[in-house]
Design brief:
Low-confidence stretches: none
Radius of gyration: 21 Å
Bound molecules: cobalamin, iron/sulfur cluster
Distance between the termini: 65 Å
Strand content: 5-15%
Number of helices: 13
Number of strands: 10
Strand order of the largest sheet: 1-2-7-4
Oligomer: single chain
Length: 340
């Protein structure tokens, strides 16, 4: 079976992109080791502790693996980019989190794909990975021909841009591998120039410790004070280095109901008022649940401070009296910013 056969099956299962890479040690593993050793993973210890070495070889995840099927699913909907948005009373949620939780959607799609494949092949072993396993998804996606790794570190496809998720299925089948496309970033440096926190380091990739996406999603401790102003209205994730990418100008939209917006730019005062049980209910099937209630209110407080809108004072005063010191301290910072 070839990549073209796999792509036909993948399309039937809701994926716009698919390809095949060999299940051999990752050619980018040295690059990854250097990144982790430099401490760029910050508090994301699952990327830098003993589990980091598992990324060297996909056969650590499935010893019988011979091929990796990598699939891409678009999530862009026709709503504005962060860089074209204004509305100080609202908070910004990253495009990838406007709809349902992609982990489930991609896993279900890959399960269907494997079931269809099984109708056409001898029995085989498999393992699905959607962020959940130590696999260099972007590196194998590149090898499987889905795109190149841009200076913003995202995987970019010439016709589809970069607004797509990745999922992978390791299989014990011999499938004909695809070939990686050329790098098409050329002399462009728009993403590096636009990053508000200078997290993209030319030639080296992303220092996650400085990325708004890391601060607002992964970091459990206080957000460094000197970075809070750069967060602007972001309350979950960041899209700026993709918004400015020329390859996203004509990127297609998804019609999949799973990714239609439910949480597009909500009002900050509304977010500041939600109780923990409401947070859980509201974001039950959303990637936003990852930041947890206290992290989310921490982010909302910063965005309110950055909005410099005196209407937020009562809400911030309430948060400044919150029993959780993380929330209270960020709200006090925001109040001081309103006073400045
Ligand atoms: C940890 C993580 C993060 C961290 C760190 C991101 C990072 N760039 O390292 C944080 C929280 C910051 C993050 C943010 C985002 N993430 Co994230 N994240 C991951 C995760 C779980 C692991 C990535 C990882 O291992 N990082 C460590 C670095 C060193 O590895 P890497 O980025 O894969 O880089 C390798 C290759 O790029 C390679 N390489 C080869 N050639 C080249 C050339 C150049 C120029 C460079 C720079 C690198 C490079 O070298 C590296 C080492 O092997 C993956 C899922 C997975 N298992 O891969 C999703 C994943 C990468 N994230 C994804 C998404 C959607 C996002 C966000 C857009 C979400 C958002 N809007 O906030 C942002 C994008 C920020 C950005 N510019 O990357 C998608 C990316 C899809 C795509 N089209 O690229 C993934 C694949 C999840 C998925 N299953 O779809 N993420
Ligand atoms: S996601 Fe935002 S903060 Fe992170 S590298 Fe891209 S532009 Fe910079
Ligand atoms: S903005 Fe330019 S340099 Fe950055 S990823 Fe897109 S094409 Fe590459």
């Amino acid at each position: 079976m070839t990549g073209a056969d796999i792509r036909a099956l993948a399309r039937e299962c809701g994926f716009e992109l698919a390809g095949v890479a060999e299940a051999v040690p990752a050619s980018d593993r040295e690059r990854y080791r250097e990144w982790a050793a430099a401490g760029w993973a910050g508090e994301m210890r699952y990327l830098s502790d003993h589990r980091a070495a598992l990324r060297d070889d996909p056969r650590n995840l499935l010893p019988s693996a011979r091929a990796i099927i990598v699939a891409g699913k678009l999530y862009q909907t026709p709503w504005p980019h962060t860089t074209r948005f204004s509305g100080a009373e609202r908070g910004w949620i990253s495009r990838y989190a406007w709809g349902g939780d992609y982990h489930h959607v991609l896993r279900r799609g890959l399960e269907r794909l494997l079931a269809r494949l099984a109708e056409r092949t001898p029995p085989f072993e498999s393992r699905i990975c959607v962020d959940t396993a130590p696999l260099l998804e972007r590196s194998y996606a590149r090898l499987a021909g889905l795109g190149w790794i841009g200076r913003n570190t995202c995987l970019i496809n010439q016709g589809m841009g970069s607004w797509f998720f990745l999922g992978a299925a390791l299989v014990s089948l011999d499938l004909t591998p695809d070939t990686p496309p050329p790098d098409r970033c050329g002399t462009c440096t728009r993403c590096i120039d636009a990053c508000p926190t200078a997290a993209l380091i030319p030639g080296k990739g992303l220092d996650a410790r400085r990325c708004i996406s890391y601060y607002t999603i992964e970091l459990r401790s206080p957000i460094p004070e000197h970075e809070r102003a750069s967060l602007g209205a972001h309350v979950f994730g960041c899209d700026i280095c993709q918004d400015v990418c020329p390859w996203n100008r004509r990127a297609p939209f998804t019609l999949d109901p799973a990714f239609q917006p439910a949480h597009f730019a909500p009002r900050l005062d509304r977010l500041a008022a939600i109780e923990e049980s409401e947070f859980r209910e509201m974001f039950r099937d959303s990637p936003i649940s990852r930041t947890r209630y206290r992290g989310f209110l921490r982010n909302v407080a910063i965005a309110m401070g950055n909005a410099s809108d005196p209407h937020f004072r009562p809400a911030l005063e309430r948060l400044a009296a919150h029993p959780d010191p993380l929330i209270a301290e960020h709200a006090q910072w925001a109040l001081a910013r309103l006073d400045a």
